[in-house]
Amino acid sequence: MSNTRIVSFDNEPLILVDSEDNVLGYETKERAHDGEGMLHRAFSIFIFNSAGEVLMQQRHGDKRLWPLIWSNSCCSHPRKGESGDQAATRRLYEELGLKTPLTYLYKFEYTAHYKNLGTEHELCSVYIGATDEAPNVNATEVADWHFIAPEELNARVAAHPEKFSPWFKMEWRELWDTYRPEIEKVIAGLKKS
């Protein structure tokens, strides 16, 4: 089944926040990423299968920031009027055609500049989930994808860090160092179902 519906818009209203996640207002996605960037809510999702592999995606070549760079399973922004949980569930389906329960782990603030084209300045919530379904990727968002064993992924990141998004590297290190029991729990739940 073809999945090419446009789901990202430069004028979609993102939620501007302070470092304590208090809402300050709203701004278009395009303007929120201009220059030094405006701090806004975002989320990242990591999907695992029953073999313990993580789903990685290569960002579409038309992305303004980090095109054709490998990143986590799915990431985006809550829109005005949307909770982080609602946005993560929506985007996982829009981008990968997947519906699976998600577990919130933590949130963190980061800033990353991409050449002279813009900046990610995000208060990012990190979620995990598990499924053995193959994704039906949205070809307007995703250039390529694969499941990969964590040990192999660690080796690839160490050998070629420039091929991975900056937020992914920060999040993956935190997942690997701190949240492996939670990952093992969602994988075990998938094996039981």
Textual characterization of the structure:
It is globular, with a radius of gyration of 16 Å. The mean pLDDT is 94. A four-stranded mixed beta sheet has the order 6-3-8-7, with helices on both faces. A three-stranded antiparallel beta sheet has the order 5-4-9. The chain contains five helices and nine strands; from the N terminus they run ββαββββαβββααα. With 193 residues, the chain is of the alpha+beta class.
What gap, in angstroms, lies between the N and C termini? Answer: 26 Å
* % residues in beta strands: 25-35%
Q: The CATH topology, please? A: Nucleoside Triphosphate Pyrophosphohydrolase
The level 1 CATH classification is Alpha Beta
Q: What is the element string, with H for helices and E for strands?
A: EEHEEEEHEEEHHH
Beta strands, count: 9
* Number of domain units: 1
> What would you call the shape?
globular
If you average the pLDDT, what whole number results? Answer: 94
Task: Summarize it.
The chain has 193 residues and is of the alpha+beta class. Helices cover 27% and strands 33% of the residues.
Brief descriptors of the model:
193 residues; 9 strands; alpha+beta
Write the layout of secondary structure elements.
Layout: E1 13-17, E2 23-28, H1 29-32, E3 40-48, E4 54-59, E5 70-71, E6 74-76, H2 84-96, E7 102-114, E8 118-130, E9 142-148, H3 150-159, H4 166-178, H5 180-192
Parallel strand pairs: 3-8
Antiparallel strand pairs: 1-2, 3-6, 4-5, 4-9, 7-8
